[in-house]
Write a structure and sequence with these properties.
Pfam families: DUF3853 (PF12964). InterPro entries: DUF3853. This is DUF3853 family protein. Helix content is 53%, strand content 12%. The protein is mostly helical. The chain folds into 2 domains: 3-36; 45-95, Arc Repressor Mutant, subunit A.
Length: 104
């Protein structure tokens, strides 16, 4: 079967065989283009204490404790009162096993 005549034909005029053929061709085309295209990973930033609440799904006081704990400091950029958090890095840092404090 040819694809071009089917693409210009209204769906209500297609037979079941034509419709299945067309859907299989588009599914094959979509899977082929999806596998060849690489989606660039964009950084996701959140802002302020509310952003920390959003990342971790916690309350505002808990978000303040997380920020003060220093565990996600590498993900936080703060200038004055403006807080910008790299969400992915914050999640990685929070899930990392804490280093034990060595006291002699």
């Amino acid at each position: 079967m040819e694809i071009q005549p089917l693409l210009s034909k209204p769906v209500w005029q297609m037979t079941g065989e034509e419709l299945l053929f067309l859907s299989r061709q588009t599914a094959h085309f979509d899977s082929h283009t999806a596998s060849t295209q690489e989606t660039p990973t964009e950084k996701r930033y959140v802002y302020g204490i509310a952003g920390i609440c959003e990342i971790f799904g916690c309350s505002k006081p808990t978000a303040i404790r997380i920020k003060k704990s220093g565990r996600i400091d590498k993900a936080i950029t703060q200038v004055g009162r403006k807080i910008v958090i790299d969400a992915e890095l914050a999640l990685q840092l929070a899930s990392a096993k804490p280093k034990p404090n060595k006291r002699h």
